[in-house]
Amino acid sequence: MKSYAVKNISLSSEGEKKIYWAEKHMPVLALIRKNFKKTKPFENVTIGACLHVTKETAVLVSTLKSAGAEIYLSASNPLSTQDEVAAALAGRGIHVFAWRGMSKEEYYRAIGHVVKAEPMLTMDDGADLTACIHGLYYKEYAREDVKIVAQVVGKKSIGDIVENIVGGTEETTTGVLRLKAMAREGTLLYPIIAVNDSYTKFLFDNRHGTGQSALDGIIRATNMLIAGKTVVVAGYGWVGRGIALRAKGLGANVVVVEVNPIRALEALYDGFYVTNMITASKIGDLFITATGNRSVIRKEHFLKMKNGAILANAGHFNVEIDLEDLENISTSKKEIKTNVTEYTLKNGKKIYLLCEGRLVNLAAAEGHPPEVMDMSFTNQALALLYLLKKNRKLKKKVYRLPLPIDRKIAELKLKSLNVKIEKLTKDQREYLKSWKLGT
Description:
Elements: H1 12-24, H2 27-39, E1 46-51, H3 55-66, E2 70-75, H4 83-91, E3 95-97, H5 104-116, E4 121-124, H6 128-137, H7 144-153, H8 158-164, E5 167-170, H9 173-185, E6 192-194, H10 199-222, E7 230-234, H11 238-249, E8 253-257, H12 261-269, E9 273-275, H13 277-283, E10 286-289, H14 299-302, E11 309-313, H15 323-328, E12 330-337, E13 340-345, E14 350-354, H16 360-363, H17 370-390, E15 398-399, H18 403-416, H19 426-433
Parallel strand pairs: 1-2, 1-4, 2-3, 4-5, 5-6, 6-15, 7-8, 7-10, 8-9, 10-11, 11-14
Antiparallel strand pairs: 12-13, 13-14
Helix pairs in contact: 1-3, 1-4, 2-3, 2-17, 3-17, 5-6, 5-7, 6-7, 10-11, 10-17, 17-18
């Protein structure tokens, strides 16, 4: 098997410095690693992963390697890889296939190397790895991604590869939606733990992680002042909530666009102006998409926008801003600075697209702070352990990580922060169990 493919292995020492910093801010995963080193629960287990190759991911995969696992890792976004971290991981014996600026073919060939390794467990961020495995199994060779992966996998039996997989995990809302669709259709080939649905993931990673890192990426790319701007946030899930909250904190006038009436009402009562995108497009200075859906901002919206409007995406895939529509109504485009492309529309207005419509927090910045990824990646590690212990007894469905494990992660995080919480007395526990005591 090919060992690794990175941009420049000589960047390893710089990557080690970044990983060291992340490790110092991920105490829960450090506790897990300490235990894993002793017990070696993943001895002789191959784990295939398609994740953002960042310093935080490095802490996760190094933890799993210390537990005895053989790790094959590909990028989950062509622009999110930190090349120095990828080099350091290669130096640590991780089979990593990732570099910043991968072409579509390179991206899926990298996933092909992960599939070819015949993993027993999979970790996904956006479900590209899982979707490619399923595409191969169902012989969907007309799909470009499946065709490329098939070339790398070669003569290996996809039936044998699938038979070897005990289960997998999924990190994102977008990926979970894809996997639940497979489960509904009856086409899901193995059980998946939706790590994204764990409380210690979505309440903190999605809200506080993306809320901060998306705006960090926008500011790094543009150096714009947020205060006084009208910021339009498309989507008011946990990610949208976090972005709206942080934009408001920086002094922005926040507009929320939402299709779900309950979430729209929540946004309204949280103090935001709620409207539809056609109305918002006329008043927004900065647009940030966070829906997990496609064509959220499209032709009719671009044409209504102010001259100089800025577009950014915080959703997993680069489909939320309709790039085809933007190209079709433009007379020219040019990159005016790193991560900023200027489109001149046929009506003479200029619109600025950040990071080719890809994840702005990872393409223009460093992604989530390690403090929140500490919980998200502990979820990943313990979800894999749960799947291994279940030993194929789970049905081919999408599951949440059991609540006791979720609570344990929260307890460990609080302990690492030296935070004490109250405990129920015996009398209180009995009261909560009983239905006989009333007013």
